[in-house]
Design goal:
The chain is α+β, with helices and mostly antiparallel strands. Helices cover about 25% and strands about 30% of the residues.
């Protein structure tokens, strides 16, 4: 699960940094996130941690007439 895979970074913890990192991405035909961009970041390594978690996830690709498409 994503919640158990989160690594809270020491620098963010020491500086009391918390919040939400917003990412934008597409899902390829294999269900992997691609073209990941940080829309709203927090710094202190938290943006990179959010990307790492997203890259380790699997999604259901979009379909058009039952054919998987990159979305």
């Amino acid at each position: 699960s994503v919640v158990t895979a989160v690594t809270y970074l020491k620098a963010a913890d020491e500086n009391n940094i918390s919040g939400i990192v917003q990412l934008r991405f597409n899902v390829n035909k294999a269900g992997k996130p691609v073209r990941i961009k940080v829309i709203f970041g927090l710094g202190y390594g938290l943006d990179e941690e959010a990307i790492r978690l997203l890259e380790s996830s699997k999604w259901t690709p979009g379909k058009n007439n039952e054919i998987e498409i990159e979305f």
